[in-house]
Amino acid sequence: MRPFRALFAKELVVLFASPLAYLALALVALVTALIFFDHLRVYNQTLFLYASTNMRGFDTGSVPDYVNLRDTVFFPVMETLGITLIGLVPLVTMRVFAEERARGTDELLLTTDLSPGAIVGAKFAATYLFVAAMMATSFVYPAMAIVQGGLGAEHLAAVFLGLTLHAAALASIGLACSAWTGSQLVAAVAGWAVGFVVWDFGWVASFQLVSEDAVRFLDALSLHLRYGSFAEGIVSLGHVAYFVALAAFAAALARFSFVWRRVSGG
Amino acid sequence: MSALALCGWIALAFGAGTVYAVGAEGWFGRANLAAGALALAAAAVRAALRARGASASAFRGPLARGAAGVALALAGGVGLERAVTATGVRFDWSFERRFELSEATRRALAELGTVEAILFAEPLDPRARSTRLLLGELAATGRLRVRERALGEAAEEEDRFGVAGSNTVVLLAGGRSETVDRPTEGTIYEALYALRAREAGVAYVMRGAGEGDLSDAAPGGYSGLAAALETEGFRVRELVTATGAEVPDDADLVIALAPRRPLREEALAALERHLARGGRLVAFLEPGAQSGLEPLLARWGLASPDALVVDPASGALAGDPPGVNPLAYSYATTHPIARGLDASRMTFFRRARAFAPRPPEPEDRVQGVVFSSPRAWLAEPGAAARDGGPPPRPAGAEEDYHPLVAAGRYARDGRETRIVAFGDAELASNRYLRTLYNLDLVLNAALWAAEREPDIAIRPKAVVSGRLQLPLPVPDTFTMFQGLGLLLPEALLLAAALAWARARSA
User: Fold this and answer.
1) Where are the domains of chain A?
2) In chain B, where are the structural domains located?
3) This prediction's pTM
4) What mean pLDDT comes out for the span B404-430?
5) What is the interface pTM, i.e. ipTM, of the complex?
6) Residue contact B90–A235, C-beta within 8 A
7) Which of residues 120-159 of B touch A (CB under 8 A)?
């Protein structure tokens, strides 16, 4: 347990000693702020437009029901943030395994008491912690919309949970990609590619050759589908299990990369 | 990972992205997907060959164990997800509990047998997600099948069902259809109710002495009440009292909506005869009005002194001084009319009078159903507010629970007469009918009077709260949260600068 803790602590120190980590955190906070205020501006303009057209002030009867804080600001911000994370999270995960591999320090790690599984576990845990901090910073602006819109703390908790699980899933994908390469660039690009493909399998339905059953199966694997229900305030244990399963599969792949390297020599 | 695999991933991402964005497989998307798949397959084969070439027999064991670990994680993960999903455990943390189905909706579905729902939505309509979740919840009852159509994909169906825009649900059952253009549980419930096509009887609404108008759609009108009664299966007809005609024999219910002028003696006598032969009446009174209904109700044990209920527990509501518009939360929960209502399900009365229920005969059952708070008293109907507070309490006026709604059952010659009396009519107007639980109270009173107790329910709300439609000025929001919203990125950038400086000096 001690070497595990030491590696976990070392990963955290490396993460937080790097300017890149703080830049990523600041970038997430600023990008979210930009998306949020842009949607808020459009929402306010739409409301003013209806109010001035109808000459009835902000009488809710004069504004179409789809123009509201939740549907016009909060959900689109969450949607955009979900896609934005696909681009940002691999920037954090690309280094975790690939850097060790490029420097050859992964071999040193294997000479310690730590098994490949423990190494993977420590690195995944440290990255998840960082990702949770990242989500906390990104959540400041959408949270204020919920608080001001009176949507309730439980709904807020559901959205934050969904956002964190989504980011953790992207981190898992990024880590698995990082474990299979010595190049940080390759790890980041592979993380983006897999992330975008897994985000929404809806595009598969465009192919006439793909059967409806296959489309339904793939659709059920989409991150977007799982993440979306949290934004609506629904916490389904099935969706939580999906994210846990994805993380477990990614960790198993990362662990297997150690064995594979030993065998292939790559 | 080889360069070949990297190229494969890039091509795959561009291919999938193109198909997703365009919504059709063009040559660019197809070519990229094919190239990506080929590159990845080639990279995998090359890696496998390299591994085989490099592997000695000693490596085969760890390799097999590693691969088995991956397979096990995949199988375990899929199994876990499937098993947990099968339990169907989910929590509705949304503000208004939008996805928890009410008993009334479940019952409406059960009565219909199997219902088919078609959701017409544009692919990127954000509202459709909420509707899908709601339909999923309804489908989980096992009584609803859901289909989805992209808007514009089935023009003939859209014309047939009158689909006007995205996020519209069409419900089909027994060869009938109902179109819901703002799907919430409440509107879907109303459509399900309409699909049942059940006959609840005939409700006659008195006209001719300045009663509330059921054809008036203005906020002060009662068209909403008429629509709600029809949704519940009542056929609503007018009963013109000016002629002094008898109440028709097919009347299952007579509704008197606060006549402003005195009713003719003949009309009151006809109403009395209707009640004497086991008739049903729902009467709405107003403080300060004397229509002749009051003495009639008093003879049936529902006396109502002409006084205004002042309830200091209710604040200044609807632009009136505090206390004059009672917000009721005390109910006789054993009475069927109040079934499902409790302290958290309040009803709103706009100036009300009270009743002093007393059974005219020992076997009669007369009681209050909805009460003011125990701090309420009775004042003159025109009592004015003083110093921004409620109207003053007259000398001798006692604080008590004053019944705002009362009901009675009377056995006469083997028949049962039922009367419900409301101390206010505005609570049933278009402006206030859907306020809080007014609709449930009014409809449940009508259903009880018409002896349809099994249909008494708390209905899902058609209007979803929590959808804030007020402006949220950007400068205010920014200013209010700039402490956290701006400090955070700034602190993070400062930390990045420090980390960079430390790394440089090390």
Assistant:
1) 2-264
2) 1-53, 103-193, 200-455, 474-505
3) 0.68
4) 94
5) 0.80
6) yes
7) 123, 126-127, 129-130, 133
